[in-house]
Amino acid sequence: MGDDMQRCLDMLAENVGEVRKNAENALITICQNILSHPDDMQYRELYLDDTVVAEKLLPAIGAMECLFDIGFTEAADCLVLPQDASLSKLHALCSSLSKNYSPKTNIIDKPVNYHLSPGTSAPQKKNFLVQIMKGFQGVMRYEDPALQEKARKLIPIVELEIATMSRVRELQKRIKQNGANLGKHTKGPLTETTFDTKELFLLELLHWFKHKFFTWVDSPRCSQCFSSCEHHTVVPSKDPRCFRIEIHRCTNCKAFVEFPRYSDPEPLLKLRRGRCGEWANVFTLFCRSLGYDARWVNDKTDHVWTEVWSALENRWIHVDPCEDVMDRPLMYEKGWKKRLTYIIAYSKDEVQDVTWRYTRDQPGVMKRRNLCSENSLLQLIRSLNRQRQCSSGYNASRRQYVTKRALLELVELIRMPEELNSDDGESYEERSSGSHEWRLGRGEVSQASSKANYSWDISKYGPTFRVHYSIVKDVYRIVNDDGSILEEISGWQNGANDIQNGIFRKTEGDWKMVYLARSPGTNSGQLKWNFVVSNPKFCVAAFDLQATVTAFHGATIQWQIEAIFDDTDSSKTLVFPIDDCSNYHTDQLKGAVKLILTALLLGGNGGLAWQHAQLFRQSLENTEDRSLIVNIQLENR
Questions:
Q1: Measured between alpha carbons, how far is 33 from 72 in angstroms, rounded to an integer?
Q2: Which of 218, 293, 320, 324 is an active site residue?
Q3: How far are the Cα atoms of 228, 533, 537, 615 from residue 636, in angstroms, in the given order?
Q4: CB 78 within 8 A of CB 64
Q5: Which of 93, 134, 504, 616 could bond to 627 as cystine, CB 3.0-4.6 Å?
Q6: How many other CB atoms are there within 10 angstroms of residue 110's CB atom?
Q7: Rounded to two decimals, what is the model's pTM?
Q8: Model confidence over 335-362: pLDDT tens digits?
Q9: Taking the alpha carbons of 459, 460, 465, 466 in that order, is the dihedral positive or negative?
Q10: pLDDT at res. 124
Q11: CA 329 to CA 356: how far, in whole Å?
């Protein structure tokens, strides 16, 4: 008997009595069936959703390892013992197991007993467990050296390194100027040792991937007339790299357009389009090709992203390429209002249930986790991890490192009772990827996505207040006289005071454009910004506005500025229409202590009228975008 088989048997012996006996009985039966019918392929195929596999082998540590040791290999939906595999290991395994335990039933002449149809036991449970096994096998595609090389050639590494160094210099400048904090990841003051250039490079990679490399597709454009299409049906694919083909129908010429949904990242390196599955697939490959310890994360409630191991912080960091968001794990539960169930992470080393990183509602999640017992899931994960980490060629030191890393993660995911259902005090945005209609249908964005009520205190920055907003980067920046940045606020809605009729940020992947629009089906949309003089020594002297707007098919965007001269007396208010928002100046607001800037989106034609009034429309390639500039000059009262 070889060392590998003895190790598998030792693992099998660790199981409790009934689990071990069931697994040994199943293994003996499988071996005897093959030895008695060596040329019959039905005995050499073990379907992953069969009762014997799902209920007797998967729960037992070491059982699946025994199958792989005697020569079974993974196919699409089953394990197969090739015809040219030596049967000597089957004899050895059967002999070793028979010494300890004799099978209760000999089913050599009844192969149907372990080729049961999926309908004879809980199909949801079997499908769930099978999908985990497939996911664990699928991530090995990222480890193909030739595929990694193809991926690396597409990444502008030098360009991203330069951007990373610019970010480093900016951080160093802030350290020296005001001792700014890096953010929520660090405790205490920022020093030059509290950030890692590799993680900063990852931020640049993430932003490049979102805005320059990959394209989101709800529905493809018609290949004949280039009009928009609507989802029609789904058909199976004969291409093993593609898990299904969506058929979409042109809204203009009624032609049918195929949209293949690839699970293999290689064709996606050329196509560069898709939804979250394709995005996370390629981005995880990119991370692996650059040497990051990365894993592919699947949310059972239908989303996919990446996690990257931080050597600096000794923890896995959430990275969502669709959203250009890093380390915001509660975004899905708190921002998207997802009712989470199972979130499983897959890497070349291990598969892990990481649900608890992404929720603070453990009781609610537990009520929804009903696809299988927690013990069945844990047993499967342990079995798959042991099989992968005890496979031939797996480095012993790597196994030790992965074990230590798993323990660190376990400690991180254990929540104290007072942490459950707690609020971390942060705000989380709704989903931004995908069309507004598509997100509404998934319940991941509200009809009136108002998270406003913000007021800018314009008197705390000196005699001049300057704020620039970039729709491309989706960030407000308050700047000094010399152009240096005093403060940043991410998210257009986080700087607004009032939002009506679901104003949202729309990204056109095909045209590489981005802008704010009102919700579909609404006749108008309104956005307001508040500028307040809190210092009683100052008041407004002059107001300047520069804004970018685009309108089609009779749509309009109307602007106005309201000046309030006394907060206690509503009669002391003046409203001025703004005819030219591209270059507006007025000094008729002298003495005001509060300004309200309003943009009203109106009109348009047909079912797409909501899209015809576009606020701040810019090309995603515009790195110097200043979609909105507000300058307010103050003077002494």
A1: 14
A2: 320
A3: 56, 11, 6, 34
A4: no
A5: 616
A6: 12
A7: 0.60
A8: 888 999 999 999 999 999 999 999 999 9
A9: negative
A10: 78
A11: 10
Q: What does the chain come to in residues?
A: 637
- Please report, to the nearest 10 degrees, the dihedral formed by the alpha carbons of residues 251, 257, 260, 265 taken in order: -80
122 C-beta neighbours (distance < 10 Å), count: 14
Q: Quick one: CA torsion of 202, 207, 213, 217, rounded to 10 degrees?
A: 120
Active-site annotation holds for 276: yes
Q: Tokens representing 17?
A: 């009595």
- Is 225 one of the annotated active-site residues of the chain? no
Quick: pLDDT tens for 485-501: 888 888 898 899 988 87
303 is catalytic: yes
Write the CB contacts of 624 (distance below 8 Å, at least 6 apart in sequence): none
Q: CA–CA separation, 139 vs 295, rounded Å?
A: 8
Could you give the 3-state DSSP secondary structure of residue 474? coil
Active-site option among 248, 303, 436, 468? 303
Q: 241 and 200 in contact (C-beta within 8 Å)? A: no
Residue indicated by tokens 């985990």: 132
Q: Which two tokens stand for residue 183?
A: 């953010």
Q: How far is CA 508 from each of CA 34, 230, 248, 312, 474, rounded to the nearest angstrom?
A: 57, 16, 18, 37, 15
**Placement of tokens 């992947």 in the chain:** 509
Rg of the chain's alpha carbons, rounded to an integer? 30
Q: Measured between alpha carbons, how far is 368 from 341 in angstroms, rounded to an integer? A: 6
Cβ of 270: how many Cβ atoms within 10 Å?
9
The catalytic position among 276, 287, 322, 372 is 276
Closest C-alpha among 629, 624, 599 to residue 614 = 599
> What's the CA angle centered on 357, arms 195 and 337, to 5 degrees?
110
